[in-house]
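Bench log, entry 3. Co-assembly request; chain sequences pasted below exactly as received.
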Amino acid sequence: MKQLERARWRCRRGLLELDLTLERFVDEHYVSLGEAERRQFEMLLDLSDNDLWDMIALKKKPTDMRLQYVLSLLQAI
Amino acid sequence: MAIVTRKFDAVIVGAGGAGMRAALQLSEAGLKVAILSKVFPTRSHTVAAQGGIAAALGNVTEDNWHWHMYDTVKGSDYLGDQDAIEFMCRQASEVVYELEHFGMPFDRLDNGKIYQRPFGGQSQNFGGAQATRSCAAADRTGHAMLHTLYQRNVQANTQFFIEWMGLDLIRDEDGDVCGVTALDIETGEVMAMQARATLFATGGAARIFSASTNAFINTGDGLGMAARAGIPLEDMEFWQFHPTGVYGVGVLISEAVRGEGGYLLNKDGERFMERYAPHAKDLASRDVVSRALTMEMQAGRGCGRDADHLLLKLDHLGADVIKARLPGIREIAIKFANADPIRDPIPVVPTAHYMMGGIPTNFYGQVVAPYKTGPEEVVQGFYAAGECACVSVHGGNRLGTNSLLDILVFGRAAANQIIEDLKKNQHHKQLPPDATDKALARLARLEGQKDGENVAQVSDAMRKTMQTHCGVFRFPDMLKQGVAKMSDIAERARQTAIRDKSRVFNTARVEALELDNLIEVAMATMVSAEARTESRGAHARDDFPDRDDNKWLKHTLYFNEGRRLDYKPVRLKPLTVESFAPKPRTY
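Structure output for the full assembly:
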């Protein structure tokens, strides 16, 4: 219950770049994600702002390669 | 609704740099500290600070705190309080070394000392050669600071309330502050957090403008709570605009681009900064460049169909330089402006960046207001630090790298003052019977509102009004209309309705409550700006282009009740040195 709202709130970040990118991602993709992918997204949200942004913008490799699919969606935003 | 009350020695609202620096000091002194944050602490907006921390360590070139003080007073356009500025600059080295001992990964010189780099507005010998004063951890200084302080707070047993939002201040009939009412965003639970000391460290509020570099969380919650509780807001007309935010989204394009040789163009392809600042050109100070962009657009030389932005060109630097030195900037331009700077210029506009005003405090972090007999009476039990506070060390205009210094110095100073004050006040004051009434009434109003206003639409109207009527350049008729428009919008904000009435993770409700706070900040800004008939620092009036020290060398105080204004003198007398008398501010 309220999974979408919870995810949306956790997209509130310290960097405006992330606020904008994650908000667009949730609007465009979240409802069509499967359970496993939603968990991947939550794991990405647990990263610190700069690390997450580097992975999205500078295409740094995630430490956990299982995150790559959702990350590729974020990179394409 | 039955309200749970919990008792703490100190409650802090906001877990950015200022809040966590204060929390650490208090927890290490053995006090029971609660710190509330809407988001996980290391995701506070402090994370966005790249430039560094100003401190006259003299590790690279000769330096001393007195020169730093001069730069800060001058930068403030003489509106800064010189006692507070001396206090801050004298303590700068100590708070930086302290942070180093906490484990902050500062960049190093070969000799092992903290590396320092030059930054705009810093000089040697009272306006002489460029000083080298900024201590940094790569371009991640804010990030490193937050992580360092968070780890130390966990060790010190600070109690974090994560995803909690402050709703309203609790003040008793003596005017003393006894705590804060707060909302658990996850469960919807409301709690009265009773405390012998309440510290606000809620950061900035530039989300009142359409073009803003601030993260979404920067909604001025502390200022809203303070204003509703009868505390004035100081110098709210002073907002720093960064000249190069990405058009339409606000994301910051750092000064580094112009430092590397990028420059601004108007629609005729003219490098217009040469006309406004023949020497410094595109590297002139932020307020000068922001005003130049605005004047170009007003003269019809803006770019695009609506002539509403300008272009930042850097393709002449070459693909190799851009990829090597500005990779982050390139990605931001591609993502948010759909422009690859290797080929295309970046569309930019002046963008609201930093709030110089805030909750009035002295340099001990105590909130002061003219509410009893004197103009600067201490509000017992109430403290503020960081961007939400107005000490005032930034006056009319903040210098880069002074904000991280501000949060360290005054986060710590407020905590030290709290430790002293709590030795005298051993017991909690009794909560007044109406302690939570104000917060519960706001929630009940929102709960019961039918056919009300849409939160997003009212927010949008507020942001557009602030941007159009109270932006970089201010015109008398526009300000006057702006006050009337904001009054209407504030009225609409009192009738917002939300469809989701549930308790768990009701983000629509949080956004409606945030709007209440933004409206207080916006109203204070518009009314204060309309009244100040001079140009000083970041406040630039078309009808009064000059600074007027005879009439306006004073701080504005805005009271939400009746939207009344009052003023108090600038503290021109430093603690130990001679006062810096106002001079024309030229760079």
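Residues 2-75 of chain A form a domain with the DNA polymerase; domain 1 fold (CATH 1.10.150.250). The two ends of chain A are 26 Å apart (CA to CA).
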